[in-house]
């Protein structure tokens, strides 16, 4: 009995209970705002509005007890941070549904609250599988290697499968109505966006390749002017694979994913080699590529024009409404359920951050950014805490996975605030979407597994 109590993750449980109270109070305020228009203000009516989103949030507590049983030494802050962000997502979609029904009709977006609840529920289950399944035991028994070694040793298989999925999307994929993009595969009840899976696959590939050739890439066999170049036979395959990935993404016109993959590539290359000129050369290549794309692809030029002056652009309605929403929120916001976030098109996807800023104000928006900073800190802390004897693939993998969340947050928040041009990327854990939610939970599951291995070391 005492041993079981010692294994309980009390810090995690306390934070999860706080997240649950935050979620319940926010949902209660939102439900009261719309209860008069939809249902009687009774306990039964409020529970009817609350129920679709309750199960995924309550499941986080169950996950905590399971982690106490199987991975008691895993990081205790990752799960509560994800629970708060996921709770905000469920609160946002439930809050937006009545306004979507009123402004664009009940069938335009469908029941986004129920769908997002299903995505989060599936994501939590995927997190459990990645964090808790006895994968090491299975792989050591049948293949004489751990799960992490299995990921590392099959890097070319993963990258080829990922690129093949994206290539299939170019031929048989679907995209937003009225656009020439092909971004996802229709699998019936679920749309798979291969670029979401590709970013994790690319991190696994880079972590494996850089770990294997780290020492060689730090050598200086020859120079070009002041530049010190590693052996080209080791550098070209990695750069070539990255270039092929970027080419397919650009053909898809999914430039947000291209920017994300490029940033992750630079971050991992710098961490593995500690060569600052790699970053400078990469930034120069990006600037040149952005200039060429701005000239060659009308969609890129349109994005830049919308960024510089959306008020005079024919397609500037969405970014202008986003700016109005942020300014309407002020410091403390209009209050949950008191604003009009649905007046911004794609308020639940591309502009989820402006929806939060309108009703929770600058204070609430800064609070959300602080949650992301804490999540990034814990991810990088997991990587740095790995013992020097074991640093290598797992450390690079943790850095790459955390960089996915960090760069993705910067890109979409910067686009919402017009710091950079807006690209079609989701806000991790908050924006509506199936593939994105599942992949984000997959990332957290892997980070929990790595943190538990680190504590064991």
Descriptive overview:
The longest helix has 33 residues. The protein has a two-stranded antiparallel ribbon with strand order 1-2. It has a two-stranded antiparallel ribbon with strand order 3-4. A hairpin with a 4-residue loop joins strand 1 and strand 2. The chain is built from 18 helices and four strands. The relative contact order is 0.12. The protein has one domain. It is mainly alpha-helical and 457 residues long.
Proportion in β-strands = under 5%
- Total number of helices: 18
The tally of beta strands, per DSSP, is: 4
User: How many domains is the backbone divided into?
Assistant: 1
User: Uncertain segments of ≥5 residues (pLDDT<50)?
Assistant: 37-47
Structural class: mainly alpha
Strand order of the largest sheet: 1-2
- The average pLDDT is 78
What would you report as the Rg, rounded to the nearest angstrom? 23 Å
Distance between the termini: 26 Å
Overall spatial form: globular
Classify the helix fraction into a percent range: over 70%
H/E topology pattern: HHHHHHHHEEHHEEHHHHHHHH
Question: What about the largest sheet?
Answer: 2 strands, antiparallel
């Amino acid at each position: 009995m005492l041993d079981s109590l010692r294994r309980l993750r009390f810090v995690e449980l306390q934070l999860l209970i706080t997240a649950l109270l935050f979620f319940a109070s926010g949902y209660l305020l939102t439900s009261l705002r719309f209860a008069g228009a939809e249902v009687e203000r009774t306990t039964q009516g409020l529970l009817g509005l609350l129920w679709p989103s309750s199960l995924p949030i309550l499941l986080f507590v169950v996950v905590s007890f399971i982690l106490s049983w199987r991975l008691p030494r895993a990081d205790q802050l990752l799960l509560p941070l994800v629970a708060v962000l996921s709770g905000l997502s469920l609160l946002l979609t439930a809050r937006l549904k009545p306004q979507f029904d009123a402004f664009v009709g009940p069938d335009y977006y469908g029941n986004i609250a129920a769908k997002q609840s299903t995505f989060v529920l599936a994501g939590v289950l995927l997190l459990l599988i990645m964090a808790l399944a006895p994968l090491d035991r299975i792989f050591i028994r049948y293949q004489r290697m751990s799960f992490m070694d299995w990921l590392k040793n099959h890097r070319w298989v993963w990258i080829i499968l990922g690129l093949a999925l994206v290539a299939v999307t170019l031929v048989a994929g679907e995209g937003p109505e009225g656009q020439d993009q092909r971004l996802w595969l229709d699998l019936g009840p679920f749309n798979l966006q291969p670029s979401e899976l590709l970013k994790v696959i690319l991190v696994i590939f880079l972590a494996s390749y850089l770990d294997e050739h780290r020492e060689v890439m730090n050598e200086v066999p020859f120079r070009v002017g002041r530049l010190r170049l590693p052996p080209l036979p080791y550098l070209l395959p990695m750069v070539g694979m990255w270039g092929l990935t970027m080419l397919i993404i650009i053909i898809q016109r999914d430039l947000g994913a291209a920017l994300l993959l490029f940033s992750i590539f630079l971050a991992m290359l710098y961490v593995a080699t500690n060569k600052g000129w790699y970053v400078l050369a990469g930034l120069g290549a990006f600037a040149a590529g952005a200039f060429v794309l701005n000239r060659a692809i009308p969609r890129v030029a349109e994005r830049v024009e919308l960024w510089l002056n959306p008020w005079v652009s024919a397609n500037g309605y969405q970014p202008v409404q986003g700016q109005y929403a942020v300014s309407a929120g002020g410091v403390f916001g209009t209050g949950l359920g008191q604003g009009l976030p649905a007046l911004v098109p794609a308020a639940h996807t591309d502009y989820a951050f402006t929806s939060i800023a309108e009703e929770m104000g600058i204070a609430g928006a800064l609070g959300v950014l602080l949650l992301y900073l804490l999540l990034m800190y814990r991810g990088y802390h997991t990587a740095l805490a790995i013992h020097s004897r074991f640093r290598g693939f797992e450390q690079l993998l943790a850095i790459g996975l955390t960089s996915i969340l960090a760069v993705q947050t910067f890109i979409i928040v910067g686009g919402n605030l017009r710091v950079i041009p807006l690209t079609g990327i989701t806000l991790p854990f908050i924006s509506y979407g199936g593939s994105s939610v599942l992949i984000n939970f997959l990332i957290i599951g892997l980070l929990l597994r790595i943190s538990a291995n680190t504590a064991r070391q």
